[in-house]
Amino acid sequence: MYTILPESRENVIWIQVKGHMGPQDYATLFPYLDEIIARHGTIRILTDLREFQGVEFWAVLKTPPTAFKYSSKIEKKAVITDENWIYSWTKLLAPFLKTEVRCYPSSRIEEAWKWVCS
Known about the structure:
- The chain is 44% helix and 32% strand.
- By secondary structure, it is α/β, with parallel strands linked by helices.
- A 5-stranded mixed sheet has the order 1-2-3-4-5, with helices on both faces.
- It starts with a strand and ends with a helix.
């Protein structure tokens, strides 16, 4: 389940993910991102995965094609995590996307937000 945090503004979006992401989450998140992109042309995202537990199977199937769809529209993406496996996957996939991606530990969340906003 995700929440768009109130710190979000214009084309800078702070997404907090808790628990599992499922198809119903993507069914509401993607139209929201489309709306922001239509309004501003590009977006910047901070994804807070400190309480992330995984993605449901059917949602996993939608993730790669959608990531590539949005990659040219995302200027910057910061990922907050203390989990090594998330950090590793982010680093592994980042070269295939057309955006700059950085991972930050939870102790540096303010730094990540400043970077995404700059």
